[in-house]
Design brief:
heterodimer; A: 138 residues; alpha+beta; OB fold (Dihydrolipoamide Acetyltransferase, E2P); five-stranded mixed β-barrel; 2 helices; 33% strand; B: 846 residues; 5 domains; six-stranded antiparallel beta sheet; globular; Cyt_c_assembly (chain B); membrane (chain B); transmembrane helix (chain B); transmembrane (chain B); CcmF_C (chain B)
């Protein structure tokens, strides 16, 4: 057999192996309930939870508690099953956090608080919700 | 309200340039195609001239767009959305370059611009290749300029591209514009503070230059197929492939260095999808080059070269799609916001991918292939192995990075997918480390086989010296500077040392015979140094800021985080590794001389970007760095926390930064302490409350005379003098020249520093006011009440609050300099090889 066929075989075999490994390594999107259950059952894996920030009747974001130095904060996230949980993030509040449509938190439960190691946001596209900064006006 | 002028003409000009560039790109694709068809006819020269003129107009229009957009940013025309959202009045000019590419439109322009620059060389030196290659170039330019077109197609209401020349009032729905359409905001929203870094000025232009250069091998390959010069395209494409790989590689590493210096995740590489999106095509690009050189030497691997170049360019387009379409929105922190261009980007990707595959299939039968099999004892075989490892490395990263794309596809067909891309960098590293080990070893073996004529059966013998030397060196290193923690690190060390020795031996032999051929060996030595640097700096990265106090810093943090953070109280010594650490106060950085001065030594002015020195300020060497009453400019968002490191006679100051940006909140950046053997990487994890959140407690009124010593907040304080302010000081303190002002000058001593607190009493038109002065670091504030008429002493109220502190995390990164050294060697090696390949290709053409 010519060596180039062996090369191709190696690539094909490796791709199959990688797909297998990827499906094993990949994280998964869960709800707060599932994440809590998994953590209670001793799982130390990180999970992705998608949700929206809690808002009051007038659409204002509520439930945000920055630490006194503003370098960490906690907030209330409502997941897709409408379940509310407190999330702690040991980093300053990311840019445009309050404006985000959807928030993905990556982390795990420690007791009753979901501690996020990463926060990813889906922000409205730039043509929708930008405001002129009132301070910038004359 | 000031009457502001909307400079409409400049945006119209820019938009006109965009339209011209798009139309001429389309026209020159046709004209170059025509020039190719008429290549050997009587009309050849006129057809080519026509195409060149069209492309020249295209190029000029592109320069026009770039100049126009930059003028809008430079002149602070905030009536334009692009300038308003990416720049601000106080941004230094070099950061305006970053504003230019910060938005998607600007970064497309950067890419378009580099294509034009690259095309000029093809037009000048391309010879018979010019017409077909430039046809491909022009088509690509048409796709790219359509991305910034911003035209709505009438009838079908389809928006084509997003223009950077949109007026703010056309983008944002704000009631202000209804009452006053000519409203121009006073200032822009500014550049993301994380991007205000010198590496971020040059990283994207370098990266996009690399992106632009990858079009050259792709265009040559497509032209080779389509003009049926199946073999001939390789030689002229070779130097460009190498140049692209060098430039793109250097560009990626600049980005890595920026991340190391600016972001506080503690490293230079995080396997973020945006990083992966350029890492993968780079690996394929390097693999393509290696397959191509095998073909130039042995005539085998032609089809493989074509497939590789096509995959490489498809991956470049795929990475563009990933980062710009919004598909990564939920998995990356760094991707661009969605501009609604996903459809256009997808068509761009599929056009070249499907077109390329179709051409390959159509011409496949006619592509000559070598009947001979590759010998195991040949350089070619081992270079193929190297390319194979590079490809596998790329595919391993590609699969998990594409998870958001699978999810979209599954959703498109109505399914639900809950898979998420791995969020832990270790999920990538655990595979990549093995590929890196194999690659480093292969680069050593391949060099031997490539340059030496090794006979079957004698292969092992020729490696014996390097293997023995490797083992000896590794054993020595293990004895002196290696704590065993992970067996993979030892294997990495063996691989790195072997590659250094093997490539080093080849390098010495080549330098004796023909130095121009030494590029490959040098590049591989660079890679070996990088591998050893990564092994040490990551494998032995060590948190040195150990909290030995037993106090919990924040109950929400984990035990580990509480243990790995160190509280530094102002001007009190703490131990960290072999250093004595001392937090020496909040500082600002003066733009004029780059010096750090204490916030308490400067006074604010009406302009937040300017401060005035309230006294003569000297540096450690007793040189005057700011004279009293001198005005300096600075970025008021930045506070630098001066951390002094003392070890014996060695004194090093670090200034980790916290930037308080109105739009972004607080942004933390580390400071680095570079030493020869290691870096210390320090950043603030907790900072004390800002000024307006402090709770001051008033003390008893004090009645004291000049020269008297007493205590405030446990610090020895002396009232040095009470003086009437002179005209100069009245002015720089922002008072009227007819005011009568008395200043009480206190001197306060802490462990190693002397501080000044200067409260005032101001009498204006018979009205008295007391202006207090504070020293946040010591938690002291003093109010000057006046003169006690009975005793002729002075009356003050002291206020106190908690002392200042900062919590830091400090990480030691041993031998990280080897990584940067390796990077430089790699760049030099790429340079030498590129020079050689361009020379060879010129000789061939002549």
């Amino acid at each position: 057999m010519k060596k180039q066929y062996i090369f191709i075989l190696v690539i094909v075999a490796a791709v199959v192996a990688f797909i297998f490994a990827t499906s094993f390594d990949a994280g998964s999107y869960v709800t707060f309930n599932e994440a809590k259950e998994l953590a209670d059952n001793g799982s130390e894996k990180q999970y992705h939870v998608v949700g929206e920030l809690k808002k009051d009747a007038s659409g204002e974001v509520i439930g945000i508690h920055p630490s006194p130095d503003k370098l960490s904060f906690s907030f209330t996230l409502v997941d897709d099953n409408k379940e509310e949980r407190q999330v702690f993030y040991n980093e300053p509040m990311p840019q445009d956090f309050m404006k985000s449509e959807k928030v993905v938190v990556v982390g795990s439960f420690r007791q009753n608080v979901f501690v996020a190691d990463q926060i990813l946001m889906k922000c409205p596209s730039k043509y929708q919700e930008e405001n002129l900064n009132p301070n910038a006006q004359l | 309200m000031i009457l502001s002028l909307v400079h409409k003409w400049i945006g119209d000009t820019g938009h006109l340039f965009v339209i011209i560039s798009f139309v001429t790109a389309l026209a020159s694709s046709w004209a170059y195609y025509n020039a190719y068809r008429k290549a050997n006819t009587i009309e050849a020269s006129s057809a080519l001239k026509y195409a060149r003129i069209l492309f020249a107009i295209h190029g000029l229009a592109v320069f026009g767009i770039v100049v126009t957009l930059f003028s809008i940013i430079y002149n602070n025309y905030f009536e334009y959305h692009y300038a308003w959202s990416h720049s601000s009045r106080h941004l230094p000019v070099h950061y305006m370059i970053s504003s230019f590419w910060e938005g998607q439109e600007g970064s497309f322009l950067l890419w378009i611009f580099w294509h034009v620059v690259t095309a000029m060389f093809i037009m000048g030196k391309g010879g018979e290749w010019e017409a077909p290659v430039m046809t491909v170039f022009s088509v690509v330019q048409a796709f790219l300029t359509s991305m910034v077109l911003g035209v709505v197609l009438p009838g079908i209401e389809l928006k084509l591209g997003s223009s950077p020349f949109m007026l703010l009032r056309d983008v944002i729905d704000d009631p202000t514009f209804i009452s006053n359409p000519n409203f121009v905001p006073e200032d822009g929203r500014g550049l993301n503070p994380l991007l205000q870094n010198i590496w971020m000025v040059i990283h994207p232009p370098t990266l996009f230059f690399g992106f632009a250069l990858t079009l050259v091998p792709f265009s040559f390959m497509i032209s080779g197929l389509w003009t049926r010069k199946y073999k001939e395209w390789v030689k002229p494409a070779l130097p460009w492939t190498l140049l692209a790989a060098g430039v793109l590689g250097v560009g990626i590493l600049m980005g890595a260095y920026w991340a190391y210096e600016t972001l506080n995740f503690g490293g230079y590489w995080n396997w973020d999808p945006v990083e992966n999106a350029v890492y993968i095509p780079w690996l394929f690009l390097v693999a393509s080059y290696h397959v191509m050189i095998v073909f130039t030497r042995s005539k085998s691997g032609l089809m493989a070269s074509m497939i590789m170049v096509l995959s490489m360019y498809t991956l470049i387009l795929y990475s563009t799609f990933l980062t710009r379409s919004g598909v990564l929105g939920e998995s990356s922190v760094h991707s661009f916001t969605d501009l609604g261009l996903s459809g256009q980007l997808l068509i761009y990707l599929l056009f070249f991918f499907i077109g390329g595959v179709a051409l390959l299939i159509y011409h496949g039968r006619r592509i000559p292939s070598s009947q001979k099999d590759v010998e195991t004892y040949s350089g070619e075989f081992w270079v193929f192995i190297g390319a194979l490892i590079l490809i596998l490395m790329g595919i391993q990263v590609l699969l998990p990075t594409s998870i958001p794309v699978y999810n979209k596809i599954v959703e498109f067909f109505g399914g639900i997918s809950t898979a998420a891309a791995p969020s832990d960098p270790a999920e990538y590293s655990k595979y990549q480390i093995w590929f890196a080990i194999l690659l480093t070893i292969t680069s050593g073996i391949a060099q031997y086989f490539w340059w030496k004529n090794i006979k079957k059966g004698k292969a092992l013998a020729s490696f014996v010296p390097s293997i023995i030397l490797t083992m000896v060196l590794v054993l020595i290193i293990l004895q002196i500077g290696f704590t065993y923690s992970d067996f993979r690190l030892i294997i990495m060390l063996i691989a790195g040392v072997f590659s250094l020795l093997a490539n080093g031996q080849i390098l010495i032999e080549l330098l004796r015979k023909k130095p121009v051929l030494s590029g490959g060996a040098i590049t591989h030595i660079g890679v070996a140094f990088m591998v050893i640097g990564i092994l040490y700096s990551t494998g032995f990265s060590n948190v040195v800021s150990e909290n030995t106090s037993g106090l919990v810093i924040n109950k929400n943090m984990t035990t580990q985080e509480n243990r790995e953070n160190l509280v530094l109280w102002f001007d009190e010594t703490s131990k960290m590794a072999e250093y004595d650490l001392n937090y020496l106060g909040r500082h600002v950085k003066l733009d004029e001389n780059g010096e750090y001065v204490r916030i308490s030594d400067v006074l604010p002015t009406d302009d937040p970007y300017k401060v005035v020195a309230s006294r003569d300020i000297y540096n450690e060497e007793n040189e005057l760095i700011a004279g009293k009453a001198d005005t300096f400019s600075l970025n008021p968002e930045n506070t630098y926390y001066k951390i002094r490191h003392v070890r014996g006679d060695e004194i090093i100051d670090m200034y980790p930064r916290v930037q308080d940006n109105p739009d972004m909140g607080k942004v933390v950046s580390p400071d680095l302490l570079h030493t020869f053997t290691r870096d210390f990487y320090t950043y603030a994890t907790v900072i004390p409350p800002s000024d307006d959140e402090l709770k001051w407690v008033a003390g008893d009124t004090m009645v004291i005379s000049v020269g008297e010593e007493f205590f405030i907040n446990d610090y020895v304080t002396t009232l040095k003098e009470v003086v009437k302010l002179d005209a100069e000081e009245l002015e720089f303190r922002g008072l009227n020249k007819n005011d009568l002002a008395l200043k009480a000058a206190f001197e306060i001593k802490s462990q190693s520093l002397t501080h000044y607190v200067e409260p005032l009493i101001v009498i204006r038109d018979d009205m008295g006011a007391s202006l207090e002065d504070e020293l946040i670091e010591l938690g002291i504030k003093v109010q000057f009440l006046g003169v006690d008429p009975n005793t002729e002493k002075f009356k003050f109220i002291p206020y106190t609050t908690q002392k200042d502190f900062v919590v830091i995390k400090s990480i030691e990164k041993p031998w990280i300099n080897l990584l940067w050294l390796g990077t430089i060697i790699l760049a030099v090696g790429f340079g030498i090889s590129t020079y050689r390949r361009f020379k060879e290709s010129a000789k061939k053409a002549a």
